[in-house]
UniProtKB/TrEMBL annotation:
GO MF, one example: ubiquitin protein ligase activity
Organism: Clonorchis sinensis
The name this protein goes by in its record: Uncharacterized protein
Gene Ontology annotations of biological process type: proteasome-mediated ubiquitin-dependent protein catabolic process; protein polyubiquitination
UniProt repeat feature NHL, residue ranges: 9-52, 53-94, 98-141, 145-188, 189-233
InterPro entries: 6-blade_b-propeller_TolB-like, NHL_repeat, TRIM-NHL_E3_ligases
Keywords of this entry: Repeat
Presence of the UniProt keyword Repeat in the record: yes
Length: 264
């Protein structure tokens, strides 16, 4: 866990199978009361830690076979992308299972390789599908609404999208992994602009988060072993990283919000 100024605070978890330990952490999120949630692909669960990193509990083993993206919405619900079963699972803040939706396939309410999840101000659920090169949108109960994105390199097209994050204006930031860039869309899926770094290109961007108090976008860049920090200017034509933070962070996938927390 780091401050937004890239100062290291503390580590969460250690390698192992026992409660409080982690085997393959994929993503990290924060609850409305400041707890940390870590999805663990290998242990098929979500592990919960206090704001200081103390182990609290874990849940989801009965319902998760390969969890990846995770987020806590403004109502406290915990949404988990189960990549292995191609479903999205919803839990109460206590970890009690509510429901799940999706299935393996290419239909509207199906996924091929779901990766990340984000929720807008209307509680609509956005899921990136790495293999379908698209973002699928559902209402808060899992009813399919629409999708956007198609495979390609042109602005507005996607090649294996990974991380998702909204700002307060419901601009959606998408890590366009295969095209080594971050793209911005509105909540209806209309393309807005590209965020990239000409002097230090992305190399497979994945997790990202928008930090509202500072209006900064944090993007994990595993191929360059770092986290890049942007101050998005949505009317500008190009973007440079405001600063380069947390170098030599290896194989990071997920990134939290208030304090910057990395899954690695």
């Amino acid at each position: 866990v780091f401050t937004t100024q890239a100062q290291f605070l503390f580590r969460i978890g250690e390698y192992g199978y026992h409660p409080g330990q982690l085997m393959r952490p994929m993503d990290v999120a924060e609850t409305i009361n400041g707890n940390y949630l870590v999805s663990d692909f290998e242990l098929h669960c979500v592990t919960v830690y206090s704001p200081t990193g103390t182990y609290i509990s874990r849940f989801g083993q009965r319902y998760l076979s390969g969890p990846k993206g995770i987020i806590a919405d403004r109502n406290g619900r915990i949404l988990v992308v189960d990549q292995k079963s191609c479903m999205l699972c919803i839990f109460k803040p206590t970890g009690k299972f509510i429901n799940r939706f999706g299935a393996r396939g290419s239909g509207d309410n199906q996924f091929t390789n779901p990766f990340s999840v984000a929720v807008n101000s209307q509680d609509e659920i956005y899921v990136s599908d790495y293999a379908q090169h698209a973002i699928k949108v559902f209402d808060q109960n899992g009813l399919y609404l629409f999708r956007f994105g198609e495979h390609g390199m042109e602005p507005g097209m996607l090649h294996a999208p990974t991380g998702l994050a909204f700002d307060k204006q419901d601009n959606l930031f998408v890590s366009d992994w295969g095209n080594n860039r971050v793209q911005v869309f509105d909540a209806l899926g209309n393309f807005q602009r590209v965020i990239s770094s000409a002097f230090e290109p992305f190399n497979g961007p994945q997790g990202l988060t928008f930090h509202t108090p500072t209006q900064r976008l944090f993007v994990t860049d595993p191929g360059n072993y770092c986290v890049k920090v942007f101050q998005p200017q949505l009317n500008a034509k190009s973007e440079k990283p405001e600063e380069k933070a947390m170098e030599n962070v290896n194989e990071q996938c997920g990134v939290g919000s208030e304090h910057l927390s990395l899954a690695q």
